[in-house]
Automatic annotation (TrEMBL):
Entry EC number(s): 2.4.2.52
Gene Ontology molecular function: any one: triphosphoribosyl-dephospho-CoA synthase activity
Keyword terms, alphabetized: ATP-binding, Nucleotide-binding, Transferase
Protein name listed in UniProt: 2-(5''-triphosphoribosyl)-3'-dephosphocoenzyme-A synthase
Family membership noted in the UniProt record: Belongs to the CitG/MdcB family.
Pfam family, one: CitG
Length: 202
């Protein structure tokens, strides 16, 4: 995209890593109740070929999220959701077109789109792509999202909004907004491929 400076040749190919993560997840077998390499689990409306079609459709969009993160790295983090939302909607539409209306990766588009955006932002700012930095950047980008999109919603128009109104669950939005100091060590450890932190004995 115009105006984006080239990243270091040693920088990781974030969009390729995202696509590989999606493939690794669906091929992981066994996953009781979920679509995997052996069967469709409890799902009657989706199967492995559909997931592969979905990944092929949404995969290219993570390069767009990465580029948007880099292009707008000089803007405030609170502006980023507005700037990447059109790409997120288009990515979801590509998924639905590939799956004939079945939601295979809406959560993945949200979470991995945010992480890709955060990665681009950090790259452009010359910062290391550590798990902690990625989680902190996503938290900054999503600051206030629960208040704006769940608390203020008068009528539930999505499953996430309905679950919040019925049970107070903040779901993916709440997890994305969490600060590192609010209990994200476990999330960071998992992202980094490490072990869960041990709690201190009482």
């Amino acid at each position: 995209m115009p105006g984006i400076n080239p990243v270091s040749a040693s920088a990781p190919d974030v969009s390729a890593l995202v696509r590989q993560a999606l493939l690794d997840e669906v091929w992981l077998t066994p996953k009781p109740g979920l679509v995997d390499g052996a069967n469709s689990g409890s799902h009657r409306d989706m199967d492995l070929p559909m997931f592969l079609d979905s990944i092929a459709a949404i995969g290219p969009w993570f390069s767009t999220f990465l580029a948007l993160g880099r292009e707008h790295a000089g803007r405030g983090a609170c502006e980023m959701l507005r700037l990447i939302r059109p790409a997120g909607i288009a990515c979801e539409q590509a998924m639905y077109q590939a799956t004939h209306g079945v939601n295979t990766h809406k959560g993945g588009v949200f979470s991995l789109g945010l992480l890709s955006t955060a990665a681009g932002r950090l790259q452009e700012q010359g910062k290391a792509l550590t798990a902690s930095a990625l989680c902190s950047t996503v938290s900054e980008i999503c600051s206030g999202i629960v208040e704006r999109e769940l608390v203020a919603a008068r009528k539930a128009s999505s499953v996430g909004e309905r679950l919040y109104q019925q049970f107070g669950l903040t779901g993916a939005r709440g997890e994305a907004e969490k600060r590192v100091s609010d209990g994200a060590p476990a999330r960071i450890a998992l992202l980094a491929g490490g072990e869960l932190p041990q709690t201190s004995p009482a």
